[in-house]
Backbone:
């Protein structure tokens, strides 16, 4: 299927384009070398919902590439990680001459350990998943979680884990499902980091690890040193496709945001990369595509700020950006709102907040006062400072494409705006007592002569 495209000219935006994803890769295709030391990221393959039946047999993973940790018939394993809309999956084939397992499923038992570090408000937040095979007639398989290095861990609510005998020799196969709700920071898991290791204990009497082959070492004090997670397929594949189509291969996002922009009660992903805004999510093209728009800027550095915030009171977040536009020997900053839906990204409202010429600069400030639930926010713009510019040195007609800037020598010191269901309308104004109408000033000057 060829991508379907639509475009239109937008005020202060160059273009907007819709692209349906044509992701034809098999759901279980993992492309990675077998040696962990050669990998720069921990791959996690996209799975169709309900594609995996957690029964310990690994038949559903027949199309997956199983990476390897360790060597020989004792303390080694082959594994693959996957994800769907509900959570993460782990599949392992462990070679082990003897399974060590107590009734409590603790540190002194054999386990497959997955360490995950996700972005939080003040840095990375980590969760460690301990996956224990069970022993027939003695103890069931167990999945527990806690902070890395924690002495106590809790059973994972909603998890599924099953082991089965290994067909090729001593050991076992293990299959587990972990819901995203059990992982701290999972709303942004595709920006996370992680590792996987095999915890092999020599005996119950001496429960010290005999071997612990790992994808990467885990330093609890430096979680940022963990390898990044690499989601194969899904939104990352769509982003890679977008970057390739626009000759931006390898470009890193300036901002990578999450928020409900479509009203589907799920967090969409909004990426600002180079001069573009790209949005993905289950409600956007059925999760198979993306919408994007090119901002009206010359270079990526002219994107000054970006965040998601509901300013209209409809429960959907708008994208708030500050951009710098250049031309005519000067520049202007725009504080701009963009609305994102299932089909497009389009401008909603904008106001000038800064001007600069060769003679100097002038700026104003924007303050947002959030409304009560279901009510629109109030946007208040106030006059700021001028440096080297005044009414005699900054002579230009007010813009018609956006709200004009408040100037220290203009008629208003402050203006307020609020969404009225159709547009952001002025709701208040504080006049400037020093303002003199130019026509009156000119008439007074003529009279004085």
Residues:
């Amino acid at each position: 299927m060829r991508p379907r495209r639509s475009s239109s000219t937008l005020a202060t935006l160059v273009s907007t384009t819709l692209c349906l994803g044509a992701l034809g890769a098999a759901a279980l295709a993992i492309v990675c070398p077998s040696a962990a030391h050669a990998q720069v990221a921990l791959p996690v393959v996209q799975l169709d919902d309900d594609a995996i039946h957690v029964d310990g047999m690994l038949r559903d993973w027949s199309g997956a590439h199983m990476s390897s940790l360790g060597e020989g018939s004792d303390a080694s394993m082959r594994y693959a990680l996957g994800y769907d809309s509900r959570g993460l999956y782990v599949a392992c084939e462990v070679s082990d001459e003897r399974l060590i397992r107590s009734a409590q499923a603790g540190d002194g038992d054999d386990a497959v350990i997955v360490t995950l570090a996700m972005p939080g408000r003040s840095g990375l937040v980590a969760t460690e998943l301990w996956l224990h095979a069970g022993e027939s007639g003695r103890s069931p398989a167990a999945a527990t979680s806690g902070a890395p290095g924690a002495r106590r861990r809790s059973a994972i609510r909603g998890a599924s884990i099953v082991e089965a005998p290994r067909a090729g020799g001593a050991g076992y196969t293990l299959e587990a499902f972990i819901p995203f709700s059990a992982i701290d920071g999972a709303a942004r898991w595709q920006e996370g980091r992680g590792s996987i290791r095999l915890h092999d204990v020599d005996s119950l009497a001496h429960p010290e690890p005999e071997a612990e082959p790992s994808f990467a070492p885990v330093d609890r004090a430096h979680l940022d040193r963990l390898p990044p997670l690499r989601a194969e397929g899904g939104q990352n594949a769509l982003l890679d496709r977008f970057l390739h189509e626009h000759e931006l291969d390898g470009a890193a996002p300036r901002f990578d945001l999450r928020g409900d922009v479509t009203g589907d009660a799920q967090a969409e992903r909004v990426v600002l990369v180079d001069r573009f805004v790209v949005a993905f999510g289950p409600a956007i093209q059925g999760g198979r595509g993306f919408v994007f728009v090119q901002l009206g800027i010359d270079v990526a550095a002219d994107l000054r700020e970006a965040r998601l915030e509901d300013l209209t009171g409809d429960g959907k977040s708008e994208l708030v950006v500050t951009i710098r536009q250049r031309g005519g020997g000067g520049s202007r900053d725009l504080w701009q709102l963009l609305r994102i839906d299932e089909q497009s990204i389009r401008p909603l409202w904008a106001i000038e907040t800064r001007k600069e010429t060769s003679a100097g600069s002038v700026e104003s400030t924007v303050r947002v006062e959030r409304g009560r639930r279901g009510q629109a926010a109030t946007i208040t713009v106030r006059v700021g400072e001028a440096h080297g510019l005044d009414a005699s040195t900054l002579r230009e007609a007010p813009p018609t494409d956006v709200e004009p800037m408040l100037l220290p020598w203009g008629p208003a010191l402050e203006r307020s705006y609020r969404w009225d269901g159709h547009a952001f309308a002025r709701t208040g104004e504080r006049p400037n007592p020093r303002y003199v109408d130019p026509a009156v000033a000119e008439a007074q000057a003529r009279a004085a002569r």
